[in-house]
Amino acid sequence: MARYIGPVCRICRREGDKLFLKGARCLSPKCAVERRVYPPGQHGKEASFKRGRTSDYNAQLREKQKARRIYGVLERQFRRYFAEAVRRSGPTGTNLLILLETRLDNVIYRLGLADSRAHARQLVSHAHFDVNGVPTNISSYGLRAGDVITVHGNSRHLAYFREIRAAMQERPPAPDWLDIEVTNEGLTAKVSRMPERGDIDLPLNEQLIVEYYSR
Questions:
Q1: Range(s) of the domain holding residue 10
Q2: Are 155 and 130 members of one domain?
Q3: In what order do the strands lie in the sheet with 129-131?
Q4: Which of 17, 35, 52 is the last residue of a domain?
Q5: Is residue 87 part of a domain?
Q6: Distance between CA atoms of residues 37 and 44, nearest Å
Q7: Rounded CA gap, 125 and 105, in Å?
């Protein structure tokens, strides 16, 4: 499976916004976006002082790249998500965000079971979770309303999941479309409904992505 293995902080600097790709570091003074407020590269400082109107194409491209990088999806897979969003009824941009938001790795991150989406992808690929009682190690698995996620039986007693259960009260609450129950036996989460656009709190303008692929 292809994936980006380079430094992720430079991605945030390239987009000029925090994409929260590195967990707790993004909330600390060590965040690269706050320490270096200019794009990466040899001419980054010069680029930060250039003035002029950004073209429509560049704005569309940057928004598409930002969405890809937030969810950790490569270009070919992102195009498939867009094609599926076009086939579905309703606004294409909203459909695209819902498809990305209901990926299994993103849901694990939204539940607070991982520090970042990359961390969630690693947990899923190591088969630590079951979906509807079936072990699932596909990060891009698309969840639907009513699906139940549980920690796999062999993973429940690992130190990581024991510590997560103890710290769940201190973590941010899960979105309204997800329910999570913490017991002594383990963690159980359910997709109570499909997310709506208002549930996706990301700095994205999906209409620009639609315009990019509609050129």
A1: 1-52
A2: yes
A3: 134-135, 129-131, 148-151, 187-191, 178-182
A4: 52
A5: yes
A6: 9
A7: 9
Q: What is the 3-state secondary structure (H, E, C) of the chain?
A: CCCCCCCCHHHHHHHCCCCCCCHHHHHCCCCHHHHCCCCCCCCHHHHHHCCCCCCHHHHHHHHHHHHHHHHCCCHHHHHHHHHHHHHCCCCHHHHHHHHHHCEHHHHHHHCCCCCCHHHHHHHHHCCCEEECCEECCCCCCECCCCCEEEECHHHCCCHHHHHHHHHHHHCCCCCCCEEEEECCCCEEEEECCCCCHHHCCCCCCHHHHHHHHCC
Specify the CATH number for the domain of residue 28.
1.10.1050.10
The tens digit of pLDDT for each residue in 165-210 reads: 877 777 778 899 999 998 777 789 999 999 999 999 888 999 999 9
Let me know whether 23 and 62 are in one domain. Answer: no
